[in-house]
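anyone seen this seq b4? input:
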Amino acid sequence: MRGARSRSGCRSTRSTPTRTTPGWRPRELLRQEARVYRHLASSAVPVPRLVDLLHLELDVLVCEFMEADGTVARSQELGGIIAALHQLPAPGGLPLEHGPDAFPSVLAERIARRWSTLDVPATPRQELPTAPHPALLTAAPPDLTTPSLLHLDVRASNTIVRDGRITALVDWSNSLIGDPALELARIHENARLPENGIDFPDLLRGYAAVRPLPRRTAECWRLYLLDAAVMLAVVFTSEAPDAERGPLLVRRVAELAGADLARVVHPALRTAML
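predicted toks r here
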């Protein structure tokens, strides 16, 4: 739950979340989020102040209460915040499976696992593409000498905005250590959904004002975009079925898997392709 108040001030509490990744337990997710909040407490990345992590009947993460006022975040400001996040040293203590050495295999495994769930009654089989071979998936990411902490769920509902300025980036349950380009690919796909409130070119301009855009091969970008697209397709065909969006998002997976990538991505992203 969010927004519980106490006499000592305003604070928000969040009960144990769920995660579909095998081997992950809810308590570990809350510990990870608490660790991220501590790591970013004095940085240029705005996050709520961590109050406590309580182990009660339900594990509860207690944070400073931060109220949005309904104004809209500027994508350029958001891009600068994401770039500042990627410039910081990655925090220690995150689970080993989320470390840089495991990054390619974790990515390949979750794409294959999610892909296998796309064959559902609401999605005609003829719309499903063939999953890329695992060897292609693990070979695409570059060797990372300086991996970054990634949020991986950047969208309007995870930003707290007051007076048109972003005061906090919340919900770090999807975060991992990896390639900053993966974050931008996820944002690229999230920006296709209007409710996420992202102007992708503006966001890239804000990012580039803080640090250079990561340049990757077309196949690397394809992998990262597929990771995002498959996730969204699973959400809208299985987890929150939507008769209109589900098939559209499955077709997006097919589009990214088989087309000349430059034809199916925003022109702003093409500038970051090697």
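The longest strand covers residues 9-15. The chain has nine helices and eight strands. kinda curious what u guys think
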